[in-house]
Amino acid sequence: MNSTPALLNRILLTVLGLVLVGAGLLLVLLATVPPAAPWWHSWSGSAWNGINQLFDATRFPGRPESWLWIVVALVLLALMGFMVAWIAQQGKGRSNLLAEEYDPGNTPGDIRIGGGVSEQALKHALEGRPDLAGATIATYDVKGSPALKVRLLPRQGVAPHLLAAEVAELLTALESVVGREIPVLVHIGAGARTRFGRAERVR
Amino acid sequence: MSSSVEDRRTDNGSRRSSGPDMRRILYRETHSSRAAVSVAAAVLVLVLAAYGVLESGVHALGQPAWLIEPQVAAQRIVDLPAGIPPLLLAATGAVLAMVGLIFLLNGILPGKRARHLLAPGRGPGSPAVVVDDEVIASSLARRARLAANVTPEQVMVVVSQRQVLVNVRPTSGVPVDQDRILEAVRDELDQMHLEPAPVPRVNVAPSGVIGA
Description:
The complex is a heterodimer of chains A (203) and B (212). Chain A contains six helices and five strands, in the order αααββαββαβα. Chain A has a three-stranded mixed beta sheet with strand order 3-4-5, covered by helices on one side. In chain A, strands 1-2 form a two-stranded antiparallel ribbon. In chain A, 53% of the residues lie in helices and 18% in strands. In chain A, helix 4 crosses helix 5 (160-178). Chain A has two domains: 6-89, no CATH class; 97-196, 2-Layer Sandwich (Alpha-Beta Plaits), CATH 3.30.70.1350. In chain B, strand 3 and strand 4 (163-168) form a beta hairpin. Classes of the chains: A alpha+beta (203), B alpha+beta (212). Chains A and B meet through helix 1, helix 2, helix 3, strand 4 and helix 5 of A and helix 1, helix 2, helix 3, helix 4 and helix 5 of B.
């Protein structure tokens, strides 16, 4: 429902996992298999020599340090910025706007209906139901258009399809009040409150 | 006035099809999120990169290194099996590989959640419904309990992606009709229209419960 970058998460996790597994296996091989050591020495030694020559070739005039270190620092800083941006993308997508429409009537301006309207109305309508242990309603912004997520926690033994049908009626009523159709996701879930609470016996 | 309302209705109707992709939303709801693992991975890379920035920045300015000179560290890595106890090296490698495996599996496994979809059958405007398997199980357990006429403790239902297993322990001396329970459970499942549809199976324990 939220705009967590699912594919990006998978790709980055896979890449990082492969790198770590590769490094770990290399260390284990070096520690346990004797023939691995000469191979590693020849391979990494030549690579390290190449890097060293690069550093020697890029010195500041008259100073022993290479300016390549500044490049390395900048690249790492960019990597840090990318990581911060990646973290900031997780779990985004809550919004506070249910509907927005230009009003063709006599009054100038347009109409905005906040997400609080649906949240409060549905919460109130679902309050006091004996078969529910709890309900949360949230408005999301899914790729630019508003959507509602209704999370219901029914008590044990409640038939989910009957509950869904009754909630669907409430949602139709809400849509007629708001004046437009809103995509809705209903999640009927179980939690600690439903697991240890009393069972519903009326239905 | 009413005609303008009608116009807006149809306008919205056409806009709805270009609205959010419901299939994508449902996929996200039935598959687990990698947000927590991703944040952990990002923090790990952040810390390592921050240390790298510090060392390379200090080196670029010609100051003494904070923990270790980068060139010394690289040289140590190059002649690796030497200079460190092999046990410690192997243990470090194993830990690294384990952490990597956790990230890797999080990245490539499907990560299906124990949830089912309720098939939409009540018109195009009806909401999409996702149900936890636990809720389905408790509903089926109530139905099976009523059909078998036993107490709630004698029924255990396990719901998986493609199968529903109903375990019933009958009260000692009172026979339980297996077919009747199966009929009841199947009826309840048919009403739910789950997606994917699981196949019910009833298992009546050979030994009964006394005094229930």
